Amino acid sequence: MKRLVSSLMAAAMLTGAVAAGGALAESDAYIYGTMQIPYGAFYAAEGVASEVDAVTSATPTKWSSETLAAGTYSAAHEADAGGDILGVVYPVAITQESLDALADANYGFEALASVPGAYKIVTVEDGAAVFSAVQGETTVIEAEASLSNNTAYGDFVVNVAAINNANGTSDVGTIYGVLLKTTDGAVYGLRHLENIWLDQLAWSVGFVTEERSGNALSSEDYADMMGKTICEITYITETGSHALSTNLYVPVKFDGGVEVASVPAADGAAAMTLTNLPEDYAPEYAVDGLRIQAEADQLSFTDAMPGAYTLVVSDANGKYAHLRADFILTTDVLPVAYDAETNRLVAADGADPALAQRFIENISTVTVGDVEYSASGKGAVAIVNREGGIDPEAAVTSGRGAEAVTTPVFAEGGEYALTVVSTGFDRSIRFTASIRKE
């Protein structure tokens, strides 16, 4: 059962939060406000050894999105539509003398009307601001966390359930920073957008250097994490720190891979190529939905249906990262036909009903007239349902919230030419559907 243990959270909202060493901060000695704190300065007193960089994004809006980057401050690029996330806007406590000493270099200080539930104490050394660790309560979190190297946003990703980080806040409040702590005492600071993405925490160690939107990934600060175990994930919010105990081993990645040839399902075997496996890698093989047997250069299978599959090669010793290879098993059989009376795809005469259902389940695109619609993934449009029926009310939605616009696939009743393509089936089906609109 996933739950958040928040019995200490109310105490963190009281004035006079706990200062370093357990003594209460003298609230009348400080002025409270917010400062724009660069990531490097924000994390320096939290045990992070490296200088945490800003995040550069070439995408037009994500770097300034309150949904994805709440609590941060940023600057737009001059040369493109992107921007840089520079750090966070976090509460601070500072004396008037120190604030005066900073003068114009006060990190955009803005006064608060009351004592915040958590803050960093600012002192001045050699004319520069120095930020303490977060002053405030630490709340214990109980949630499920899992680690994988199967992500398009870096080399590793941690998925945390029950945080519900979306729309600028979460079950523990607005997340200003995340710390990954390992059993050897190292601490790694994560940044918004590149590392903190809703309930996912992703990072690069140098193998994946660019994420799917084309943004470059920073890896220097995280490269030495491989082979370590993450024992705690700490979320820094406006009410203090929220700590989740974990036991997540970060496997060792290496410059190797696996490939599987796409072949007809009836062949019963496909060529498999493994490259650069370490000598102490003990491979184990698995394909979801397929009974297999792996040899040195061949993957054998039985009773295979057409479709897309993924071979996962794992290290039985648990030291190294998984390898993955996508492949497709095909057939030249077209097992479906169009039934005009019911306006649906059905099993063709003499076809295996299971194969016909597989065709329907694997539909990848449907073309209506000259417009092709994706049937799976982001932005999918379900023109053909799982029973094979043609949905006359199928529609495409673009935009979000109040700006969302819905456009029907079939603007009005009439005859429409459709082409349906299914993954693993070499032959597509073309037919004219009669669409009736209420």
Entry keywords:
438 residues, mainly beta, seven-stranded mixed beta sheet, six-stranded mixed beta sheet, 5 helices, 7% helix, 42% strand, disordered N terminus
Describe the structure.
With 438 residues, the protein is mainly β. It has helices spanning 9-12, 39-44, 66-69, 96-102, 353-361, and strands at residues 3-4, 31-38, 55-57, 72-76, 83-94, 110-111, 119-125, 128-135, 138-142, 145-148, 156-160, 177-182, 187-190, 196-197, 200-203, 229-237, 240-249, 257-260, 263-264, 269-275, 283-287, 291-294, 298-302, 307-315, 323-330, 336-339, 344-347, 363-368, 371-374, 395-398, 405-408, 414-422, 429-435. The strands form eight sheets. Strands 2, 3, 4, 5, 6, 7 and 8 form a seven-stranded mixed sheet that branches. A six-stranded mixed sheet has the order 1-9-17-16-12-13, with no helix packed on it. Mean pLDDT is 90; it is low at 1-24.
Poorly predicted spans: 1-24
Which value, in Å, is the CA radius of gyration? Answer: 27 Å
Tell me the number of strands: 33
Shape: globular
Tally of separate helices = 5
Major β-sheet annotation: 7 strands, mixed
End-to-end Cα distance: 46 Å
Amount of helix: under 10%
Structural category is mainly beta
* Residues in β-strands, percent: 35-45%
Mean pLDDT: 90
Element layout with pairings:
Blueprint: E1 3-4, H1 9-12, E2 31-38, H2 39-44, E3 55-57, H3 66-69, E4 72-76, E5 83-94, H4 96-102, E6 110-111, E7 119-125, E8 128-135, E9 138-142, E10 145-148, E11 156-160, E12 177-182, E13 187-190, E14 196-197, E15 200-203, E16 229-237, E17 240-249, E18 257-260, E19 263-264, E20 269-275, E21 283-287, E22 291-294, E23 298-302, E24 307-315, E25 323-330, E26 336-339, E27 344-347, H5 353-361, E28 363-368, E29 371-374, E30 395-398, E31 405-408, E32 414-422, E33 429-435
Parallel strand pairs: 5-7, 9-17, 19-25
Antiparallel strand pairs: 1-9, 2-5, 2-6, 3-5, 4-5, 7-8, 10-11, 11-15, 12-13, 12-16, 14-15, 16-17, 18-20, 20-23, 21-24, 22-23, 24-25, 26-27, 28-29, 28-32, 30-31, 32-33
